[in-house]
Write a structure and sequence with these properties.
Order of helices and strands: HEEEEHEEHHE
Distance between the termini: 17 Å
CATH architecture: 2-Layer Sandwich
CATH superfamily: YgaC/TfoX-N like chaperone
Shape: globular
Number of strands: 7
Largest sheet: 7 strands, antiparallel
CATH class: Alpha Beta
Structural class: alpha+beta
Number of domains: 1
Radius of gyration: 13 Å
Length: about 120
């Protein structure tokens, strides 16, 4: 696992702070982003991942986004709940707000224990 890049995290937090109450906490070697007790995003290295659901996943895929994947001794693990935020969204405050708001909604609406991990 990689740690969150400080510059990426600071820039993202600056942008999101104007839109919603966000705090951070450690998360598997990266940093989780939390809004009103709901974890809706994480930063690993320089990549920002937002929570997706069955309705929003196709939007991320259409933008060329990949799910979060990490390596284990048994091979790669893909976590379909998190997809990389498309770079163009980070550059557009209105888009960032819309995608972040939808990620919070997706995280809140996820079934309890709703982690879906697949091995590639």
């Amino acid at each position: 696992m990689s740690t969150a890049d400080p510059a990426t995290l600071e820039s993202l937090m600056d942008r999101l702070a104007a839109l919603m109450p966000v705090r951070t906490r450690g998360f598997f070697g990266g940093t989780a982003l939390v809004c009103d007790a709901t974890q809706f995003a994480m930063v690993m290295g320089t990549t920002v991942y937002f929570v997706v659901d069955d309705e929003t996943r196709s939007r991320y895929q259409a933008a060329g986004s990949e799910p979060f994947t990490y390596l284990t001794a048994r091979g790669p693990i893909t976590v379909g709940r998190y997809h990389a935020l498309p770079p163009q969204v980070l550059d557009d405050p209105d888009a960032l707000h819309a995608w972040a708001d939808r990620a919070v909604q997706s995280a809140r609406n996820a079934p309890a224990g709703g982690r879906r991990r697949t091995t590639r």
